[in-house]
Known about the structure:
- By secondary structure, this protein is of the alpha+beta class.
- The chain has one domain (about 20-135): CATH 2.40.50.90.
- The chain is about 35% helix and about 25% strand.
- The strands form 2 sheets. Strands 1, 2, 3, 4, 6, 7 and 8 form a 7-stranded mixed sheet that branches. It has a two-stranded antiparallel ribbon with strand order 5-9.
- Strand 2 and strand 3 form a beta hairpin.
- It is globular.
- The N and C termini lie far apart (about 65 Å).
- InterPro entries: SNase_OB-fold_sf.
- This is Nuclease.
Amino acid sequence: MLPVVALFVLMLFPVFARADCYSWPLREQRGAYAYDGDTIYITMPGLPAPISKMSVRVAGIDTPEIRGHCDAEKQLAIKARDRVLAVLAGAVASGQPVLFCRPEWGRYGGRVVAYVAIGDIWLQDILFAEGLGRIYQGQKRGTWCPQQP
């Protein structure tokens, strides 16, 4: 009996782990689903058209800025954005949902902050593993530019 109960509990775990996740429709802006490595475009269901177009900032990660402070940051930002675009395009092509988890309103307004999962893979983990992002928990952002001697 115990193995059956344990199996039942394990089967429920993914449901509980993703209970606060939402599969909001991605939207294209200027032909892309993302602005950079940590900003994704969505359409928020249930809102009127003018305000349903939102951006989601990927929680827990900082990626280089497209309008960065140096060429190295700008080039890395393009790599991060292109990687995110490839991941999102792959999800769309395969019909795999993109999940926005534990969403909250961003402190600067105008966008939602949420952890992003594609299937069982967290987007930030992909970017961390490939050196295209670093952990971000609200602290002052560090530089992506090489240090001058």
